[in-house]
Amino acid sequence: MSATGTPAQPEARVTLRRLLVPLDGSRLAECVLPAAVSLAEHLPAHLTLLHVLERAARPTVHGERHLTAVNEAEAYLAAVAGRCPPGTLADSHVHPNEEGDVAKSITDHAADLGADLIILCTHGGGGARRVLFGSVAQQVLRRGTRPVLLVRPPEGSATAASESWNVERVLVPLDGSPPAEDALPIALAVAGAYGAEVHLLRIVPTLTTIPGERASAALLVPTATAASLEIEEEEARRGLLALASRIRSEGIRATAAVGRGEPAQGVLDAALRAHVDVVIMATHGRTGLDAVLSGSVASRIAAKFPRPLLLVRSTHSGEPGAA
After folding, report:
1. Which of 10, 32, 256, 293 has the fewest other C-beta atoms within 10 Å?
2. 299 burial level (CB within 10 Å; 0-12, 13-18, 19+)
3. Which CATH number is 18-151's, of 3.40.50.620, 3.40.640.10, 3.90.1150.10, 3.30.499.10?
């Protein structure tokens, strides 16, 4: 059942067979490699390392010399591929024509290559806007339809993370709507590949954290609203427990929890408390995605959560809700 109390059927697990890893030549961007290599090994999947030559590129990128020639970019990608563990299926591609819109080139390559997942570094820090807005990652999220795994660089370091990456716990935030549940197939695919546990989470607001138009109505009838939220919490708990039971019937460990409070902070607190390795959540269509990134759950998690965040474009783009 979904968190609304209606029957929910987790869709058949998706297959992630090709991973696209855009690299700009910097060690900072290489922070995605432990996650990319690990996913390629466990799924299993084929890695394609991509470099797009940028028109009017700056001399340096993240403090290092920018790759502006095809031959040096090819040599760089070949060296990165050579550092992958033996048995890793990896190839590389340099887009030879200089592009003014790197993000568009990445989304176009993802479509042409049939990539099932794009893995990107979130450059920057110090707030949600610096992490996502104005970055290639945000533009790829806005324009593309492929899921995107965002990996934060290590705090206080401009170098790539050297440790390996493993997935033992996956957090999937849900809100009772069909769009939010579009994250489930990929979550099950990742959890199944690693033998990981899936944590289903729903955050029901309190009287003081109700968002949007509901907040004004809540102030007018606080007693009735509080009672309604209590019912919503109980229905959400029943729905998540039923969904977790169905996931367990498919051979994947799953737990369910309902929290109260502000959604973004509730998800972040739960992710940190449970020491999850990745948060997998859905976003909406173009307009809805912009709204999510501009001020709410995904941007705040990306800014504060030190582990990867996997965003899945919902196919229910016209429906309200979702994380």
Report:
1. 10
2. buried
3. 3.40.50.620
